[in-house]
Design brief:
The chain is of the alpha+beta class and 277 residues long. The chain has one domain (10-269). The protein is 34% helix and 22% strand. It is built from 7 helices and 15 strands. The strands form 6 sheets. The protein has a 4-stranded antiparallel β-sheet, sandwiched between helices. The protein has a 3-stranded mixed β-sheet with strand order 7-14-13, with no helix packed on it. The chain has a two-stranded antiparallel ribbon with strand order 1-6. Helix 2 packs across helix 3 (86-111) and helix 3 (86-111) crosses helix 4 (127-135). The radius of gyration is 19 Å and the shape is globular. Residues 1-5 have low confidence and may be disordered. Bound molecules: zinc ion. Zinc ion binds next to helix 2.
């Protein structure tokens, strides 16, 4: 069988597998069928960052049978039967993030930008390029250390929760709730949050509580606000087929707390924020 040895660049279009660039004869659901079935999502609508509304059932990307069935099929299985590790959920979150991002690019491409192409060189400056390389962590053709390469926060609820999904494209992060568990995943932060003492203390304290959805969303909102005013440098080594974090991240610059931004994010998430003056 032919092996994928190098992550090749290719043009994104509707005939090409979003993972490997071969001919796409199948369609991969960005939100898998088991998930749509479980939470009755088929006709519910998601608002994309460009304000387009699209139903979950329509969110499909072109895929070859191998990537769809073998490679990503296995990953879907561990998540649907609730046996996922943090690395699995990170790979899965990255797939959703990547697909929603190219979906947005494809819409743009439809309008004005023919021949959008992503290259075969991973770039720390291009988050989409990174996400595309991380897709290949599922097959093992690309490796990252640490694995997961981003911060994964897991939350367990005592009661089943409604399905909830938030994608914040500029921070490459998602929030997803899957019944009695929910995740916040920062896909490309090189575990900056996981190394952050203050944030981890808060997280470890939070998960001991009888959690409400709003507690988790508020934690996410605070981290997004923090990320927006913090400039971080991560010492990285990138070589063919691999990305390695070489040491702890350093904070280059940090701006004062932006309460207005935090309020705006909370608003967007549908939670009320009461801040004492
Ligand atoms: Zn493929």
């Amino acid at each position: 069988m032919e092996q994928f040895t190098k992550i090749k660049s290719f043009e994104i279009d509707n005939e090409t597998c979003f993972v490997c660039g071969r001919k796409a004869t199948t369609r991969e659901h960005i939100f898998p069928k088991w998930l749509q079935h479980k939470f009755d999502l088929w006709d519910q609508k998601l608002v994309l960052p460009n304000e387009t509304k699209i139903s979950y059932r329509q969110l499909v990307v072109p895929c070859c049978p191998k990537c769809n069935g073998e490679v990503f099929g296995k990953l879907e299985k561990v998540i649907s039967n609730e046996s996922e590790t943090d690395s699995d959920i990170w790979r899965w979150a990255n797939k959703i993030h990547f697909c929603l991002t190219i979906k947005d690019k494809i819409f743009e491409w439809d309008r004005k930008n023919p021949g959008y192409k992503i290259g075969d060189v991973i770039s720390t400056k291009d988050p989409l390029e990174q996400a595309r390389h991380y897709l290949h962590c599922v097959s093992g053709d690309f490796k990252c250390s640490p694995d997961p390469f981003g911060s994964v926060f897991r939350f367990n609820f005592k009661q089943e929760q409604k399905f909830n999904f938030i994608h914040i494209i500029n921070s490459s992060s998602i929030f997803i709730s899957l019944g009695n568990r929910a995740y916040i995943v920062f896909i490309k932060d090189c575990q900056f949050f996981k190394d952050h003492k203050g944030i981890m203390e808060e997280y470890n304290e939070l998960i001991l509580r009888d959690l409400k959805m709003s507690d988790v969303l508020y934690f996410y909102a605070k981290n997004l606000e923090y990320l927006a005013r913090t400039t971080v440098t991560n010492p990285l080594m990138i070589k063919e087929g691999e990305i390695v974090k070489l040491g702890r991240a350093s904070i280059r610059k940090i701006e004062p707390k932006n309460t207005e931004l935090l309020k705006a994010i909370c608003n967007q998430f549908g939670i009320n924020l009461i801040i004492p003056d």
